[in-house]
Design goal:
The chain has 13 helices and 2 strands, in the order αααααααααααααββ. It has helices at 12-56, 65-72, 74-107, 113-120, 122-125, 128-139, 144-153, 165-189, 194-201, 206-234, 238-244, 251-261, 265-293; strands spanning 312-313, 319-320. The termini are far apart.
């Protein structure tokens, strides 16, 4: 049977209408794409460029005095060094304290686990000013703990950490704890337990198995979480400004002081450029490592991930499960 191809011939009016619809779609797509770019250009890039020109070219000529002062003055070098090492210390303590929590959430299933995970994320989304004010109300000179100790036991200044490094380190740990637990537990729960089981069968202790097998496998997630926490602590402003006081100035705090209090815009802009360069490098490194190891905050374990023991809670409030008696810890 012969098959015939039919060609639909459109009249000029229909061709014109079709071209018009195609052009309208192109214009709408262009407007939808250009609207965010226009918004960023007007409200972000334009003020940024104007501030940069006002800072580096105050009289129409490039002023390099502040740049040389930044690299030759020990004051600003100490500020940069303090910013780096306080972020490193905050990251280290957060990782050490979050590892047990990540182990708990990745290894066991228990009633209320999803609710507890959701509640743990509340500090991470809280404003920094609220967190700093809450820490001062709890641990400050006239905080709740000192007031209770004074009224109940007659102890004056039981906790005296106001305007110290320990004060804002505790706030940094509180802020980033849930982030590290989320990343590590999600990655940890997706690991294959065959290597760990083989090591236990060959006589390795649970502690040695963790150091030799589990911890190296967790290294990509640990590194990714550490970079994120370091970035957040490196750019910390409100927590350090409120809890650390004027004696502990990071780059963010010094930018604020130079721009608002001293109105030294060239120095503030120079410090901002240094921080932007470091932040872009750290974010690129974090994205690169996350892409290579497929680790992120939204990582979910595979569907074929190993089953986890279910931990229950008896009437007396004690944990019981047969897996806990088989050398899990």
């Amino acid at each position: 049977m012969d098959q015939h191809c039919f060609k639909i011939n459109l009249n000029p009016q229909e061709k014109s209408n079709r071209r018009t619809r195609v052009n309208i779609k192109k214009y709408v797509s262009f407007l939808l794409f250009s609207a965010p770019l226009l918004f960023l250009g007007i409200f972000y890039f334009y003020p940024l460029v104007k501030i940069g020109l006002l800072s580096f070219f105050p009289g129409g000529e490039l002023q390099t005095d502040q740049i040389f002062k930044l690299f030759h003055s020990p004051i600003y070098g100490n500020i940069v060094w303090f910013t780096v090492w306080q972020a490193l210390l905050s990251t280290l303590f957060t990782l050490l304290l979050a590892l047990p929590g990540a182990y708990l959430f990745s290894t066991f299933n228990f009633r209320g686990k999803s609710l507890l995970e959701a509640l743990m994320m509340i500090p991470f989304v809280m404003p920094t000013v609220v967190t700093a004010a809450a820490f001062r109300a709890l641990l400050g000179k006239h905080g709740l703990i000192n007031e209770c100790a004074s009224s109940l036991f007659g102890i004056e200044q039981l906790v005296n950490i106001e305007q110290t490094i320990l004060f804002f380190l505790l706030a940094h740990i509180f802020y980033n704890y849930s982030l590290v637990v989320k990343i590590l537990s999600s990655y940890w729960s997706g690991l294959n337990d065959s290597l760990k089981d083989a090591a236990l069968m060959l006589g390795a202790s649970p502690w040695k198995t963790f150091w030799k097998i589990t911890l190296p496998l967790l290294f990509p997630a640990i590194l990714s979480a550490a970079l994120l926490v370091f970035i957040f602590c490196f750019t910390s402003f409100g927590v350090i400004l409120i809890l650390g006081g004027p004696a502990h100035a990071t780059i963010e705090v010094e930018i604020y002081r130079q721009a608002v209090q001293l109105f030294n815009l060239p120095m503030a802009a120079t410090l901002s450029c240094i921080q932007l360069i470091l932040n872009f490098f750290l974010m690129w490194l974090n994205g690169y490592l996350g892409k290579k190891s497929r680790v992120s905050f939204f990582f979910h374990p595979a569907h074929n991930a190993p089953d986890r023991p279910t931990v229950q809670f008896n009437n007396r409030g004690k944990w019981f499960n047969s897996h806990l008696l088989q050398g899990t810890f």
